[in-house]
Amino acid sequence: MTDTPTTDRSISRRTLARGAAWSVPTVALAATAPAMASSGPPPTFQFTGANKIPGNSCKPKWFKGYVFNFTVCNPSGVSIWIHTVSYVIGSDKTFKPNDNQFPIEVPANSCVSIGFNATDQGSSSNEKFDATLTVFWDHSKTGNDPNTHTPTVVSITVPETPPIPSCADATSAPPAPNTTAASTSQKTAGASPTSTAPASTAPVSTAPAAPASTAPAAPSGS
């Protein structure tokens, strides 16, 4: 009687088992890829000036206190969402964020103008002071980003806080009028301060208008 060989069949089974074992880590790594992809560098902040909001003139969106205007840039490839800001202003002022304005989106690879409204229960006068803003952000509109992002700390010197021209200006957060940009520094815990270049101020060339034609009118027939 001739024996039926089984060697090839046994090797085949072992080879399949090894292939199955190696495929498990590959699947696990692929599952974590989307979460890792949502991480990225922090936003940068260029201080452009500050205004005061007197009384309740800009309710219900804006409240009595100050608006700190920034150009905020997102250097990452996914949207950044700012969820709140905490304030330390001078040595004798207690402010809180205006929760009505959050969350704020800064789209991927872009810059936007944002006015952060710090509300004050006391008086809002035209003053000069130092301020520190701690900005809490992540990559999720609802704050459910699976990654942990260190809040960005921004330190500024505010040279003056003239009244805001109109409540509409608070919404668009333009640079404060008659305000020279003060020195701005920012840091993320455990990281070096990030330098942000100011926006270009190159003059715009305007060609003179062409002179109006002075040709005499044709004589009328008789």
Q: What do these coordinates show?
A:
It is built from 2 helices and 9 strands, in the order αββββββββαβ. By secondary structure, it is of the alpha+beta class. Strands 5-3-7-8-9 form a 5-stranded antiparallel sheet, with no helix packed on it. The protein is globular. Residues 15-38, 171-185 and 188-222 have low confidence and may be disordered.
Uncertain stretches of 5 or more adjacent residues: 15-38, 171-185, 188-222
What's the end-to-end separation, in Å? 135 Å
Individual helix count: 2
Helix content: 10-25%
Compute the CA-based radius of gyration: 30 Å
Give the number of DSSP strands: 9
Structural class: alpha+beta
Summarize the structure.
The protein is an alpha+beta fold.
Any chance you could write out the topology, listing elements then pairs?
Blueprint: H1 7-37, E1 44-53, E2 65-74, E3 80-89, E4 95-97, E5 104-106, E6 110-120, E7 129-138, E8 152-158, H2 167-172, E9 184-188
Antiparallel strand pairs: 1-2, 2-6, 3-5, 3-7, 4-6, 7-8, 8-9
